[in-house]
Design a protein that fits this description.
The protein has about 120 residues and is α+β, with helices and mostly antiparallel strands. It is built from five helices and seven strands, in the order αβααββββαββα. Strands 1-2-3-4 form a four-stranded antiparallel sheet. The chain has a three-stranded antiparallel sheet with strand order 5-6-7.
Length: about 120
């Protein structure tokens, strides 16, 4: 589990599921131009966690972006996978909250397991 999540768990909260960015991020032009350093940092510094109370997603280091939503406020978790995504088990998740909040996260490892973990808690 990542450091950000460890520092921001509330009382009686525990991690149920955790995933990260898929290795496919190393097959981009950005990776080629930065000699693989940028995707390595992205993969190490991103956290995708479902706890027994909420979903916590953190990306970035200097320019940090966080997404936290209580499980009771999430209407659905949608998964999008193209053909290579189905073969190599990666894809995008879109979290739709009450009131129309919609956040999409790309290149997630095992997105169907992420959705299943969420559905088992609700």
């Amino acid at each position: 589990m990542g450091r950000y999540v460890n520092n921001h768990l509330i009382r009686d909260e525990s991690v149920v599921y955790e995933t990260r960015l898929h290795w496919v991020i190393f097959l981009t032009l950005k990776s080629l131009f930065t000699l693989g350093i940028l995707p390595l940092l992205q993969r190490k510094l991103s956290e995708f966690v479902i706890t027994n109370r909420r979903v916590i997603i953190k990306t970035g280091f200097i320019a940090r972006s966080t997404f936290e939503m209580n499980l009771s406020k999430i209407e659905s978790v949608n998964v999008d996978q193209n053909i290579p995504g189905r073969i190599f088990n990666y894809g995008s998740i879109t979290i739709i909250g009450t009131g129309g909040t919609k956040e999409t996260f790309n290149n997630i490892t095992r997105p169907l397991n992420f959705r299943k973990a969420f559905q088992e808690l609700c």
